[in-house]
UniProtKB/TrEMBL annotation:
<dbReference type="InterPro" id="IPR010982">
    <property type="entry name" value="Lambda_DNA-bd_dom_sf"/>
</dbReference>
<dbReference type="GO" id="GO:0003700">
    <property type="term" value="F:DNA-binding transcription factor activity"/>
</dbReference>
<feature type="domain" description="HTH lacI-type">
    <location>
        <begin position="6"/>
        <end position="60"/>
    </location>
</feature>
<keyword id="KW-0804">Transcription</keyword>
<protein>
    <submittedName>
        <fullName>LacI family transcriptional regulator</fullName>
    </submittedName>
</protein>
<dbReference type="InterPro" id="IPR000843">
    <property type="entry name" value="HTH_LacI"/>
</dbReference>
<keyword id="KW-0805">Transcription regulation</keyword>
<dbReference type="Pfam" id="PF00356">
    <property type="entry name" value="LacI"/>
</dbReference>
<dbReference type="GO" id="GO:0000976">
    <property type="term" value="F:transcription cis-regulatory region binding"/>
</dbReference>
<dbReference type="InterPro" id="IPR046335">
    <property type="entry name" value="LacI/GalR-like_sensor"/>
</dbReference>
<dbReference type="Pfam" id="PF13377">
    <property type="entry name" value="Peripla_BP_3"/>
</dbReference>
<keyword id="KW-0238">DNA-binding</keyword>
<dbReference type="InterPro" id="IPR028082">
    <property type="entry name" value="Peripla_BP_I"/>
</dbReference>
Length: 347
């Protein structure tokens, strides 16, 4: 038997009332007597009546739903962001539709087109690492569609954005390695053109420059898919360890890059921190329980999701076109653990 939801017509027929009377009673209209309201509401509760969201969206010209595009839900950073998004959205009466790009431009394009076709009220997006063509997002934005970028942002579209101080994160991580006595520090990063990569590698380079350490471009390796494809990480690390002067420490500038570094070292029998030190960007909750425990730059992911959602809902619910936009920058935290244990150093 096909499921059929209870409608206002069903309530009206059962109670011997008109559909307009039932509708007004459910909306608590002053035109309906308290007795009739009580009758309708009690019966609606008894049969578990819920308003039709499609009908409501047609009436209000709103679906009260927002869309999310992230690289990968299994990534702890993005899952924490989604939790932050939902904590605000559901409190404000909005549903959330989550999609994954898996770092693919094609998937991101399909996801954005699908969400827009569902008439969602707004979009929260962190760009896929393959995305360089922004025309699909520019087209929506030019039509007044509410969009907020988080984590991976772009300069070309003028809207609200939420980021972490990635430059500081890269600088703090590298400075810690320098002060711990490491001399040949490599960096493993996402696609070079992503905003997070530019800023994190910029912080890494600023720390080397400040401490008058030679900057060697061959010590910086980029992985297009940010660690989602293990073979890219393996190839990058193979290249680093084939160099005449091998790195004694690695700054991994993304969550998946960090964990895949550890996977690579275990497979190759490379000891951490005895043979090489590792510090990375990671929001995995169990980094302190690894052996050795992992030094990390941790991002306020849950807060990022909350802030991005609040900004998006402000765009959606604004009575006038919004022309002034904010870029909110949150601060990362540095956690020092065993994977960067200090070497003998005069620093």
């Amino acid at each position: 038997m096909k499921y059929e939801a209870v409608t206002i017509k069903d309530i009206a027929r059962e109670l011997g009332l008109s559909t307009s009377t039932v509708s007004r009673a459910l909306r608590d209209s002053y035109e309906i007597s308290p007795e009739t309201k009580k009758l309708v509401l009690e019966y609606a509760e008894k049969i578990n009546y819920r308003p039709n969201p499609i009908a409501l969206s047609l009436k209000e010209k709103r679906t009260r739903s927002i869309g999310i595009v992230v690289a990968e839900i299994a990534n702890s950073f993005f899952s924490q962001i989604i939790n932050g998004i939902e904590s605000i959205a559901y409190d404000k009466g909005y549903n959330v539709i989550i999609t994954q790009s898996h770092e693919s431009f094609e998937r991101e394009l399909i996801n954005v087109q699908y969400l827009a076709s569902r008439s969602i009220d707004g979009l929260l997006i962190s760009l896929a690492s393959e995305t360089r063509d922004l025309s699909h997002l520019k087209h929506l934005h030019e039509r007044g569609y509410p969009i907020v970028f988080f984590d991976r942002i772009v300069d070309e579209i003028n809207t609200h954005k939420v980021i972490v101080d990635n430059t500081k994160g890269g600088y703090d991580a590298t400075t810690h390695l320098i002060k711990s006595g490491f001399k040949n520090i490599a960096a493993l990063a996402n696609a070079a053109y992503l905003s997070i990569t530019r800023d994190r590698i910029g912080g890494y380079q600023a720390a080397l420059e400040e401490h008058k350490m030679k900057q060697d471009p061959s010590l910086i390796k980029y992985c297009l898919h940010g660690g989602l494809v293990y073979e890219e990480v393996e190839q990058a690390l193979d290249s680093l360890f084939k160099q005449k002067k091998k790195p004694d420490a690695i700054f991994a500038a993304a969550d998946k890059l960090t964990t895949n570094c550890l996977r690579y070292f275990k497979a190759k029998g490379i000891r951490v921190p005895e043979d090489i030190a590792v510090i990375g960007f990671s929001n995995i909750d169990l980094t302190e329980l690894l052996s050795p425990s992992l030094s990390v730059v941790r991002q306020p992911a849950f807060e990022m999701g909350q802030v991005a959602t609040e900004l998006l809902l402000n765009l959606i619910e604004s009575k006038r076109p919004v022309k002034d936009f904010d870029t909110r920058m949150l601060q990362p935290d540095l956690f020092i653990r065993e994977s960067t244990s200090r070497k003998n150093s005069s620093l």
